[in-house]
Amino acid sequence: MAHQAITPAGSAHDEHEHHETPVVFGFWIYLMTDCVLFGTLFAVFAVMRNQFAGGPTGKELFDLQGVGLETLILLLSSITFGFGALSAQAKKHGLFIFWLAVTFLLGLSFVGMEIREFSHMVAEGNGPDRSAFLSAFFTLVSTHGLHVTCGLIWIAVVALQSFGSQAWTPRFMSKLTCLSLFWHFLDIVWICVFTFVYLMSVI
Length: 203
Fold this sequence. Notes:
Elements: H1 2-48, H2 58-61, H3 64-89, H4 93-123, H5 132-161, H6 170-202
Helix pairs in contact: 1-5, 1-6, 3-4, 3-6, 4-5, 5-6
Organism: Acidomonas methanolica NBRC 104435
Keywords: Cell membrane, Electron transport, Membrane, Oxidoreductase, Transmembrane, Transmembrane helix, Transport
InterPro entries: Cyt_c/ubiquinol_Oxase_su3, Cyt_c_oxidase-like_su3, Cyt_c_oxidase_su3-like_sf, Cyt_c_oxidase_su3_a-hlx, Cyt_c_ubiqinol_oxidase_su3, Ubiquinol_oxase_su3_dom
């Protein structure tokens, strides 16, 4: 009789696990489509990188020191998010919220610095309408910034959900896994942006 009581619960758990697995797999597919999006934007930038139309070049515009700080902030946010994920695995709610809050603040700082850079460039008459080079630059970098902003909203939502009854359930952990994939993906894209757009334009 004891064995019969355990079997349905185990089956329900397995069924729930099988239900959550396609969610993560589906999110991987979404990330692949995002790779295509960013790959297209990188290709456009590669074609337009020397189309200055008499305007400033990347070497004249870009401040590698400031962009380097942005890069450091975003990479650090990936580490703090990792600590948050480990805290969630250990079901340490206080630590989880702390590391998520640190990650959120780092991501917010990154977006703030990016907006400041754009504002400064536009104020000096170097907006996206100045040349094909700047159009491609603003489109690529702002698309990444928009993704980071969506990630920040997602972090806030997950943090709020962790206070509810669904915290630490397989469904919640599945959402956290998808968010982790998304956040680390943005780091990888930014490293490509830093290298291909900023660094190669200045060197």
